[in-house]
Amino acid sequence: MGLVPPSMAQDSVPLKAVIEPPRPMKPLYWTRIQLHAKKDTKSALVWEKVQEPSVDFDEFVDMFAKSAVKEKKKPISDTITKSKAKQVVKLLSNKRSQAVGILMSSLHLDMKDIQNAILNMDCTVVDLETLQALYENRAQKEEMDQIEKHIRSSKDKENAKPLDKPEQFLLQLSEVPQFSERVFCILFQSSFTECVTSVQRKLETLLRVCTALQSGQAVLQVLGLVLAFGNIMNGGNRSRGQADGFTLDILPKLKDVKSSDNSQSLLSYIVAYYLRHFDEDAGKETCVYPLPEPQDLFQASQMKFEDFQRDLRKLRKDLNACSAETEKVCNVSSEEHLQPFKDQMEEFLTRAKAELELQEKQLADTQRIFLELSVFFSVKPKAGEKEVSPNTFFTVWHEFSSDFKELWKRENKYLLKERLKAAEETFRQAREKATYNVKPKHASGIKAKLGQKM
């Protein structure tokens, strides 16, 4: 075989030098073009003109290096020995067997990973979602009875048929010390805080809105304006005049009452009047919206006390169950497997009981305050309601506050322009005053003339 001419050898060598990054990098799945391999093409290529700029190599490596490579593991189904025998024992229903089989295929873990996560309450390798799936798919009592019965009956038989993979997997799970009880406690601990916080956040919103409507000075001023203008409009009317108050259902309808020339609504007039006469900060950045925020009112209108009660009842029931399961695990665990479960769960249970009691009290207080508020505003339950619901009460306020806020923002913008104009005018006048010079009087009397001659 002849030697390759130097020019040809050079042509076949890639133009770019090999780069060896100090750490493995994340891949970029492109289809590359190498110019040395494209010499046969007659067309010019853009890549012949493109120049690579020099870049901050170290920074880029830091940004795009691969994360620490996790050990690749086979699906757990592959770790369970497949029997050479053609026939296996299937004790689960087809549907159940299929569900467990799918779960096994999705878990790239060893059984020791699962056992470690459960016994050490460490969810870094086996996450909570996986634990949830394992818990939901665990063997039920009848299934375990059948599996154990088969193992006993085939113990001394030479040609005993082995269990199918899903059955083997359920058996291995059941061999993790107190699997069901421990996982129930771990899952409940993770969900408890989330549930309590969700209830707490909603109750705080509800309480904030109730307090603003009950004792907010600005709310009272707005309602006072509606009452005053309404009484003027209804002056002389026997059934509507001389009102001391009104039912809230009129509030969302104020925007539909138009002025004589149709140029504005009663609501827009009230908003403008409130800003000009009651709010010292009108037209400034410091101006504060006088009513509860529409978004808070909408959220409050969607809440139901029976939902809160149901959620807290379920938490109480699950907390009691968690306490019982914790006791069970502690009573039957070997010394080796007692910690950290015992200390962590006892600490959690003490805190959770206190938090739940606080939330139950908060719910009772908020419901009492809300019902007092509905009486305060003379709101009666709708047909079919035993007592006024947040939906009945806050829907009216939400609609009113949404309309009010839109006009309030518009009017504030207008007042801001007015303030700027006034400030500019004051500045202009001050500047003119400063530039106006008084000319000194020239002396022209006899005394001055005599002075000049001397």
UniProtKB/TrEMBL annotation:
InterPro entries: FH2_Formin (IPR015425), FH2_Formin_sf (IPR042201), Formin_Cappuccino_subfam (IPR001265)
Alphabetic keyword roster: Coiled coil, Nucleus
Protein name in UniProt: Formin-2
Alphabetical list of PROSITE patterns matching this protein: FH2
GO biological process, one term: cortical actin cytoskeleton organization
GO cellular component: actin filament; cytoplasm; nucleus
Protein's UniProt keywords contain ATP-binding: no
Pfam families xref list: FH2
Native source species: Anabarilius grahami (Kanglang fish)
Gene3D superfamilies: Formin, FH2 domain
Signal peptide from the UniProt entry: none
Family: Belongs to the formin homology family. Cappuccino subfamily.
A GO MF label: microtubule binding
Coiled-coil ranges per UniProt: 305-369
Source organism superkingdom: Eukaryota
Localization, UniProt: Nucleus
Domain FH2 positions: 15-430
